Protein: Aldehyde ferredoxin oxidoreductase
Organism: Thermofilum adornatum
Amino acid sequence: MVDGLPRNVLYIDLSRKKYWVEDRHDLFEEYLGGTGVATKLLEEELPRGADPLGPDNVIVFAVGPFNAVYPTASKTVAMFKSPHTGNLGESHAGGRSAIAIRLAGYGAIVIKGASDLPVWVSIQEDKVFFREARALWGMTSSHTVGRVLREVEPGSGIRTIMRIGRAGEKLVTYANVITETYRHFGRLGLGAVFGSKKLKALVVSGKKSIQVSDRKLYREVYDEIYKLIVDSPLMKKYHEIGTPVNVNVLNALKALPSLNLQCSSLETAEKISGEYIAANYLGRRVSCAHCPVACIHLAVLREPYEEESYFYKTTFVGYDYEPIYALGAMLGAKEAKSMLELIDLVDSLGLDAMTTGVVLAWATEAYSRGLISENDLGGLKLSFGDYDSYKKAVQYLVEQPTELYRDLAKGLDYATRKWGGRDFALTFGGNEMAGYHTGPAAYANYAFGARHSHLDNAGYDLDQETIGRTLEPSELVRRLYEEESWRQVLTSLVICLFARKVYRPEIVSKALRPLGVEMSVDDLYKLGKKIYREKYRLKLREGYKPEDVTFPKRIFETPTPHGQLSESYMEKVKEEYVKLIQQVVTEE
């Protein structure tokens, strides 16, 4: 057995209020941790065809050998069956979650069953407590839940507090789980799975230590990685402006999806750009645990109290590119303040920002076309740039006062089957698009990536690299597959993908040695392809059919930096992906 790898898996049965620990060194030695181990644990524990919002669904949190060992290895992987797509759900979050789980003594946590009453679960190393959460259930803001638990739970400074807002309780299929206030398990509806299990929060703390087999080599490798991170121009951009630096860049490329992708740039983009917000609203930067980059940018909003001169309520709002794209550009934001207020509201309710913005953008266009009425919208007249109406609409997505909002709370793939407007509903595999209208690789990424996420294989990077030339469909798919396979290694370690160009294969191989793991670069590539295969086998088992994937017509109407996308070209890409997936899942 390898001492430097995680090994213990904590199993929690919410139905019986029981827990136990199993030594699963076999899984960690084969798959390292994170994505690899989580995929296999979910496959083991999830009954075929389970209802995503039923007690048979399973939540797996997994960390890897680099968590709490190397800088920027700060992510936790969550795996579950998604209520949003009905298929594989995978979401990653930073904050303190990974280090808290690792120092509590676990490589993974498996949550099964469903509680009869609202609970929060407190994991304090070898002990697990089931706390009644009826007093927390129904709290308007996820931020308030965090404040309450900070007062009553031990482990200040080293714990993680994962919790849901009202959206999770109401089973909105794109409800998220918030951790450490400004980080999220954002996509695919983990918050709704928490809500279906009556699990309001999960608190983890511990003070255990991690051993390395070669301290001298560990120090050398650590210093090498740290220097690469703090000196890297790539990482510097994340510290200075953060991901919102993308707003002006993509707007200039005409790759910024705006007004429900009716256009690919926005006249007022400068007013919601990372540079503008940093100059006018930035309050501070914070980091995930064990990360020197501090990419989390917090804007400060000051609101005067009524009838109180010189007294203000101060609110810190975390902002990244994705919420600015979805809740700003897609909704026609003209200035930053209203957009930041909407981001804060979406956060407090516990909604995924990207899906929420795309849903509201579709509803705005559908209303303008007469597909939905003012009555359907609860008395609202949605129009791009009207943030007072958007704030009310976001609350209605959670309160669900009309049939339309009840349908929109299940996402656009569901709602448009009843209300129409599928041609301009920007969903891929049931998941709403991310903020890159860069070209064919991005859309192949959304359609066929394992999570239908821009982070699966960064197709937007490949698009920007190849502006002015067209790859053969087979070559495009091959390159996306190679990238996504390699990312299975990085997300099994588990590192933040912002540092993916620091953790190159040679560095990863070297960094594993002080942990007692000998893996060559070739071994790592083989492992990545193996995890990719296992993930797609699970997706197919749960009903994913790549041959049924379709592309919304809107993406062919609005020019990209590559010009107008060709429907016939994208169909050839689809054919290549179908062949690839069939080939991969039949390999041994």
